[in-house]
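Input chain follows. Return structure tokens only.
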Amino acid sequence: MLDEVRRCLCAVAILTVSVVSQNYAAEFKDYRDGRVYRGIPSGSLNWFKQSLRYSKTAFFTDESGHPFYRSDNWQASCPEGSHIPDETDWDELVEDKFKGPDKLQNMKDFVGGSSLGFYKFEFDEVVNARKGYAYFALRGPGSRAIRFETKRGTTKIVDIEEADAVQIRCVFARDQFAEKNISPKDMIFTDKRDNKKYKVGVRGGKIWMMKNLAFSVTSEKQCYVEDKMYCEKFGRYYTYEEALNACPPGWHLPDDGEWRDFQKDRATLDWDNLGQGGCQDWDNYCDGMNSGHYWSKTSVQEKTARSWEFNRTDKDIERTDASVYKGLYIRCVAD
């Protein structure tokens, strides 16, 4: 997924981004007519916040200027660098945005003023059908669309005639490096809370910090053998409760599934980096020169949580259940 992001960086002439109050906002400019579409992030994609307004491929444009498109022109309608979402894309969006107690409001915000039904030929006239619903194009075989019913908060994939015209929402790949203020050139993330810098990399399709978190070093007891020098070298120890909330905004403590993906290709692991610093075990310390111990978010038994131990001498990895009061390291993963 992130390899695709890197490839998309070559299309900077099409994608423009802005940062407002340190919040990343993706925008897509359609150079065919100069329109700019704000992106709504979901999964690996950004969704046009507004329906497409490109008139040249539209079958019909209503009095308010909303274009509607027939299936034979769907693929040619989205600007270069974006595309029509398929059923899987729509399913992921629905699961992400239109579930739970806020689904009705979220759906109304997404649809906006687009509950305009669709248009079709009837007795040699173009007429509106099913007004009060929003219909959007769906990429795939046949002529299908997804229907939004904002009063009930439901969606449904429906078959339409080839002569029917619906609205289009285009999608484009998210630039997850830009969203985290990471330059793909140097792959450095700066934690705005204390301005500490962390080298990052991609493992298991996700962005990981390649150094242990060192946020809020307030005493020597958070460091190996209570020496602040080792906090700078190895990072800081955290109890499990501290670890759950220690990562910066937009990052999180990895669970067991993410750790499994991280360590799959063991030949490419930085053992000298991972396998040092030990752990804090009550008033004692694990072997700090040959092992590193890390929290997983996953907890199975009361008062314990999963931990991952990397041994650089043996190039071995062990997963155990550790007391939540022990001090272990953190590797944060981008949301």
